[in-house]
Amino acid sequence: ESVFSHVVRAPEDPILGVTVAYNKDPSPVKLNLGVGAYRTEEGKPLVLNVVRKAEQMLVNDRSRVKEYLPIVGLAEFNKLSAKLIFGADSPAIRENRVTTVQCLSGTGSLRVGAEFLARHYHQRTIYIPQPTWGNHPKIFTLSGLSVKTYRYYDPATRGLNFRGLLEDLGSAPSGAIVLLHACAHNPTGVDPTLQQWEQIRRLMRSKALLPFFDSAYQGFASGNLDADAQSVRMFVADGGECFVAQSYAKNMGLYGERVGALSVVCKTADVASRVESQLKLVIRPMFSNPPIHGASIVATVLKDRNMYNEWTIELKAMADRIISMRQQLFDALRARGTPGDWSHIIKQIGMFTFTGLNSEQVAFMTREYHIYMTSDGRISMAGLSSKTVPHLADAIHAAVT
Ligand code: PLP
Q: How large a percentage of the chain has pLDDT more than 70?
């Protein structure tokens, strides 16, 4: 008898479990719209040309060794990552008020930031949007923070519940942490307008709420790296403090390389350097120091003007393909006369469409059409192609009629 015989089987992860179910399905028409990973028109994963080029350069450089990185990661990568999210002319960077540490993609950056806050910040409550990426509440709870939600999405309008958001942040205790999706909110695809961001900023600063930005889709939402960083830059421009978790999974296609960064913008350079010293105490017992390969790829691309430009072109092509999938799906539903208003498909931003389909309709589409997606009705537009749009439109049409 095993000493572990009492261990009960855990449920599959709600997002990654979709792929597990998909892999088991022998149907030739099966379609995986669960996980947020970019696919080409041919349905294949994409390694960017500029990434291949950077890897080749790294391999050819015989002076490169496999030594450990410092606890905070690759210095050059950290500097370039801060510049990418805050802007080349950011006063916060110039004044050395930003500390950036390399972490294990977006997830690891969120986790390290949250652990630091649980140890050193006076307010242990974090407000996350309702709904949000399913990993958020787990990351923050395990880090020792207490998780509350603020209203975000209005199912009736399939848009932002702006009044609810302001009310909930307005009644949050002073100093509370607030998780904000920098752009391309997951799963809803609904972002505040710039005017709304400005109102959120004013409210948060007036109540000393601490912004923690999750930036997993910079450049992926609009195709423009600066446009997708505007929310973050508004909060940095006012001189206040904030946290930012960055991921290169989507925008550089480095999913499995686990490349990301946590930046903390502080009031002074002295505070920033003390914060960094404590971030090292969080990282050292957690994973000691981050991996070298992915960060070297990113640094190689970001520091060379030509490679950077090449990246922005490839990034825009990915974003544009997703945007064109929105239009094609919308047109296909209209052509079928599918009941309902589907304009949210073209209005929403980023990788996902929050369709409004309920869990029974999703189960029906999986059972009858072999289409795999999360039960909240979220579909990854990046997993669609011109060839598969008709099949998805048929399934949605059948599910709602
Ligand atoms: N935050 C959000 C909102 C996401 O959608 C994701 C990925 O799906 C992440 C963070 C982190 O992803 P990763 O850890 O792969 O960078």
A: 100
Residue nearest to atom 7 of ligand 1 (CA): 216
Q: What is the amino acid identity at position 239?
A: G
The residue whose two tokens read 């974090």 is 126
pLDDT band at 36 (very low <50, low <70, confident <90, very high): confident
For 182-290, strand residue ranges (E) read 210-215, 242-247, 259-265
Q: 3-state DSSP call for residue 198?
A: helix
Per-residue pLDDT tens for 65-122? 999 999 999 999 999 999 999 999 999 999 999 999 999 999 999 999 999 999 999 9
d(CA 111, CA 106) in angstroms, rounded, equals: 9
Query: Tokens 């009310």 label which residue?
Result: 167
DSSP alpha helix (H) spans, 337-388? 344-347, 359-369
Specify the pLDDT at position 305. 97
CA-nearest of 30, 20, 138, 34 to 376 is 34
Kindly provide the b/e burial profile for residues 323-341, where b requires at least 16 CB atoms within 10 angstroms of the residue's own CB: bebbebbbebbeeeebeee
State residue 84's pLDDT score.
98
pTM attached to this predicted model = 0.96
Residue pointed to by tokens 């799963």: 187
Indicate if ligand 1 lies below 6 Å from the C-beta of 87.
Answer: no
The residue contributing the CA closest to ligand 1 atom 16 is 106
- Determine which residue's CA is closest to atom 11 belonging to ligand 1: 106
Q: Which residues of 241-265 are buried (b: 16+ CB within 10 A; e: fewer)?
A: bbbbbbbbbbbbbbbebbbbbbbbb
What's the CA gap between 330 and 345, in Å, rounded?
6
Predicted ipTM of the assembly: 0.98
Q: Using the predicted structure, report yes or no on whether residue 26 has a pLDDT greater than 90.
A: yes
The Å distance, Cα 2 to ligand 1 centre, comes to 37
- Asked whether the bond before 14 is cis by omega within 30 degrees of 0, the reply is no
Query: Which residues of 131-232 form beta strands (DSSP E)?
Result: 146-151, 153-154, 159-160, 177-181, 210-215
How far apart (Å, rounded) are the C-alpha atoms in residues 346 and 348? 6
Q: Is 107 in the pocket of ligand 1 (CB under 6 A)?
A: yes
